[in-house]
Design the sequence.
C-alpha cells in the first residue's frame, strides 16, 4: 500500500486559502459597518430605544429538520433525537469526545485489517464513504473530515489523469455502514487538487479536498492535519488507516481499520510492503494518535497499490 503524506507545501497552501477567505470577510464586514453608521445621529439617554426579547409562541422551533437528498424523506427532532451518537451518557454534545478502540502501538508491521462494528461513534465517524459519479458511471472511494465542511481524499478520486477530466459529483457519507447513513449525506460543492496531480500527473501529489454542501463535520467532529519532514518518524510510530475496501472479498459497505508503522518513503509517498490494498480504499485517512494528550492528527491518505490501485 502507498499513501501520500502531508508536506509543508500542502499545509501552507491550505493556510493561504483560509487566510484569503478571512481577509475577504473582514473587508465585507468593515464595509457593512461603515455604511450602517450615521455619526450625525445622537440619541439622548432618556430616549434610547428599549429592546424586549421576542416571546416563543410555539414549541419545537429549535428542532432540527433534516431532509435526505436521496430518498426525499424529511425528519424532525432535537439534535439528540436525530444524532444520539454525538452525545455521551450524560447527555452532553461531544463531537470530539474521547473515543476508544485505537489505543494500539508498537507494532512491527501494519495489521491485515478489521471491520469496525460501530462506525457511528467517535473516532470512527469522521471517516467517509465516497460514491463518485463520472462519465455516466459510479465509482467508490474513501475520505476523512478535516473540518466541518471539507474532506481530505486522494487526487484520483476527484480528477482522472487518464482523461484529464474532473468527476461530476461526489456523495460523501460519514460513518456509512451497510447502507445506514447515521449522519445523512453531503454532496460535493467544490473540488480541489494540485497542479502536480492534475497537470503533471505526479503520484507524489495524489491529494485532493472536497468542499461539502452542508457542514456535516459540525455533528461528527473531524481530525486536524499536519506534516512531518522526518522520514524516520513514520517508520517508528504507529499510524491508523481506515477506508471502505470494495474489491473482493469486500463489498465496500463496511469500514475497515488497520494500523502500524510505514516501511519506507520516497518524496511524498509512504510505503507499506506487507498490506494488501483494495479498490475503494483510495483517499482513506491515515492518522497518528498522541495517546498521552488524546490528539488524533491526519498525516496521509491511501493512494495506490502495486496492482495499480
Sequence:
Amino acid at each position: 500500500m502507498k499513501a501520500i503524506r502531508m508536506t509543508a507545501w500542502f499545509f501552507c497552501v491550505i493556510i493561504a486559502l483560509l487566510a484569503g477567505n478571512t481577509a475577504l470577510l473582514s473587508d465585507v464586514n468593515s464595509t457593512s459597518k461603515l455604511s450602517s453608521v450615521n455619526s450625525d445621529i445622537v440619541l439622548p439617554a432618556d430616549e434610547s430605544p428599549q429592546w424586549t426579547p421576542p416571546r416563543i409562541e410555539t414549541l419545537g422551533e429549535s428542532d432540527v429538520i433534516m431532509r435526505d437528498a436521496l430518498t426525499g424523506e424529511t425528519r424532525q427532532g432535537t439534535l439528540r433525537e436525530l444524532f444520539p451518537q454525538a452525545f455521551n451518557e450524560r447527555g452532553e454534545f461531544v463531537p470530539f469526545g474521547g473515543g476508544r478502540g485505537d489505543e494500539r502501538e508498537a507494532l512491527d508491521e501494519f495489521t491485515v485489517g478489521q471491520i469496525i462494528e460501530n462506525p457511528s461513534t467517535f473516532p470512527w465517524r469522521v471517516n467517509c464513504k465516497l460514491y463518485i459519479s463520472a462519465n455516466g458511471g459510479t465509482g467508490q472511494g474513501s475520505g476523512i473530515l478535516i473540518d466541518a465542511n471539507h474532506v481530505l481524499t486522494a487526487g484520483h478520486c476527484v480528477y482522472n489523469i487518464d482523461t484529464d477530466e474532473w468527476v461530476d459529483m461526489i456523495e460523501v457519507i460519514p460513518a456509512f455502514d451497510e447502507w445506514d447513513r447515521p449522519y445523512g449525506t453531503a454532496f460535493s460543492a467544490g473540488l480541489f487538487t494540485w497542479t502536480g496531480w492534475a497537470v503533471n500527473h505526479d503520484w507524489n501529489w495524489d491529494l485532493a479536498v472536497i468542499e461539502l454542501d452542508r457542514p456535516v463535520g459540525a455533528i461528527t467532529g473531524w481530525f486536524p492535519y499536519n506534516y512531518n519532514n522526518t522520514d524516520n518518524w513514520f517508520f517508528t510510530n504507529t499510524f491508523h488507516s481506515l477506508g471502505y475496501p470494495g474489491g473482493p472479498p469486500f463489498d465496500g459497505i463496511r469500514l475497515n481499520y488497520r494500523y502500524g508503522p510505514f516501511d519506507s518513503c520516497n518524496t511524498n509517498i509512504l510505503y507499506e510492503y506487507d498490506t494488501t490494498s483494495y479498490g475503494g480504499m483510495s483517499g482513506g485517512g491515515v492518522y497518528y494518535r498522541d495517546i498521552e494528550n488524546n490528539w488524533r492528527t491526519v498525516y496521509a491518505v491511501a493512494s495506490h497499490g502495486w496492482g495499480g490501485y
Notes: The first strand starts at residue 2 and ends at 5. The radius of gyration is 22 Å.
